[in-house]
Amino acid sequence: MSAEIWVFAEERGGTVKPTSWEVLGVGQRLAGELGKPLAAVIAGSDVGSAAGALAAKELSRVLALESPALDPYTPDAHTRAVREAIESESPDLILFSHTYRIRDFVPKLAAALDRPYVPDCVGVTVEDGQPVFVRQVFQGKIDARVAVRGEGPWLATLQNGAFPAEDVRAGAAAAPVERRAMDSGGAASRTTVLEVFEGVKDKVDLTRAEVIVAVGRGIGKQENLKIVQELADAFGAELAASRPVCDNEWLPMDRQIGSSGQTVSPRLYIAVGISGAIQHLVGMKGAATIVAINKDPNAPIFQVADYGIVGDLFEVVPALTALARAG
Amino acid sequence: MKIVVCIKHVPARDSRLRIAQSGEWIEERDLSWEINEPDTYALEEALRLREKHGGEVLAITAGPDRAAEALKRGLAMGADRAIHLAGDVFNAADANATARGLADALRGEAPDLVLAGVQSDDKGYAATGVMLAELLGMPHSTLIMEVEVLDGRVKVKREMESGWFEWLELPLPAVLTIQSGINQVRYSTLKGIMAAKKKDLRRVEAPAAGSAGTGPAGTGPAGTSPTALHGLAFPSRTSRAEIFDGDGKAAAGSLWERLRRDGKLR
Ligand SMILES: Cc1cc2nc3c(=O)[nH]c(=O)nc-3n(C[C@H](O)[C@H](O)[C@H](O)COP(=O)(O)OP(=O)(O)OC[C@H]3O[C@@H](n4cnc5c(N)ncnc54)[C@H](O)[C@@H]3O)c2cc1C
Hints:
Chain A is α/β, with parallel strands linked by helices. Chain A has helices at residues 18-34, 48-55, 75-89, 100-113, 225-235, 243-247, 278-281, 313-326; strands spanning 5-9, 11-12, 15-16, 38-44, 61-66, 93-97, 117-127, 130-137, 142-148, 154-158, 177-181, 192-198, 211-215, 238-241, 268-272, 289-294, 307-310. Chain A has two domains: 5-181, Rossmann fold; 206-326, Rossmann fold (3-Layer(aba) Sandwich). Chain A has eight helices and 17 strands. The radius of gyration of chain A is 22 Å and the shape is elongated. The mean pLDDT of chain A is 94. Chain B starts with a strand and ends in a 5-residue tail after the last helix. Classes of the chains: A alpha/beta, B alpha/beta. At the A-B interface, α3, α4, β7, β8 and β9 of A face α4, α5, β7, β9 and β12 of B.
């Protein structure tokens, strides 16, 4: 049998994460183009129901790596289990989603295996029978193509939200699920998980806001926030922020939008002085209408915006506030 | 305790970038450079730990000649000494090649703690610190928002998605990748800049690409990467945005009219 393509899936509470479906869709396409069988791999202490959901899709098998040592998650235990599976099965290409957990252990796995690792890809094509990846560099300002050298397995992660989850095709019949009890003995994980908790209780709930004015580092300093607060008031909007604004303690962390903050989908989102890094975009690109105000015409925020002003926010924002006040 | 901080020299954030003719990197002329932002948080955290527990902070970078500037700034902020693993190969290097270079350079140092930023603002692999941990045989954790050094161990707060966190404990020595916002980064003072001039900044030549060495298996000699960037291009994803030009007031006026006409205001 020719070497497989693997899609590494993640689950939470027995349900496959949406980002894993995105990756599975890409895996199905590549399996077709490369003429290789596709397997889904999942790891945890009890992954039966997620494995079942994966098996309903078009793939040749599901590999469920199970061990009590895999829960709670630690990078040591995950690396060990996945490495063991890779070494016994020799897949050609392994696709992951670029989630916090994957970022935490897959680089270690790649270094341990000494194999190519191409993270956070937004495109994959096949050229001369080889995958070629596209990934963003310089904070989304430039795209780069990445070719891999040497032998597989190649490890790549796909950017969250870059591929549609709806692309996944169902299988004609359920694929076989192979449950593997992984060796949980050997060296124990060096990491001890003490506690998992939610950061801010009683946080401002931005998910219900109809209109949001979000401010980024372009505002320069805390004293300047006044002009965006006025804009927000004039629009009857909630004020939100990108991460650097909260990192600098100009606004509290519960106003942060993005992968480590809140995910919102208001009717209108006005981004002021925000570049549009992917970690910000994942939190707001579901907004019905997006307006971007930024002085850099190449800022990635314009790729998701419906309306934009390329200009100095210190001129644009007060003018817009005046218009909104006049109604 | 001995703390190593990995820092990277990257184009200043507001740079207008141009792509080099080769299509393999950016045009470096006329750019201004800075320490990769997440790394400044790592350095600040190292300095705070030294202030609390005593010891030494060693800054290291892998990069071409210009990268020595990042170390000078690190020394001015308060690092005690620095190692510049120098080589043009590091522009094209992927995280694996960089981590291997750093691991070789650090092997004789026996640090208690190695800190790195969560990812770089240029290539953004988010992998170098984690790979370094594997190569040094140390445990690691990523996206760290709080560090508490205990007796032979370290207790850390790790950021997870959507506002969740976890507390973890690891034995020392360990590698941590530090997330932005963990602290408020100090500015370097004139006194710091003067003092930095007398500090030890050691240059170590990285093996040139194509030379023999202990590179990644099956992928060539040290300094060459198993993956190669090429075909750099500005994104072709077409913006569907309708852009309003003119001075601020005029642009705001056109935008307002348009929002009203399209029924976006209620
Ligand atoms: C694991 C991880 C999680 C993260 N989570 C989040 C998250 O949840 N939310 C988040 O936002 N970020 C997050 N980030 C950070 C993210 O990668 C970016 O660094 C961040 O979003 C950048 O914020 P910004 O756009 O405000 O700042 P910058 O990228 O510095 O952009 C500032 C923008 O302002 C513009 N500007 C400057 N002056 C003016 C002016 N006078 N007029 C008009 N425009 C101007 C500039 O052109 C620039 O585009 C995360 C990063 C990591 C690694």
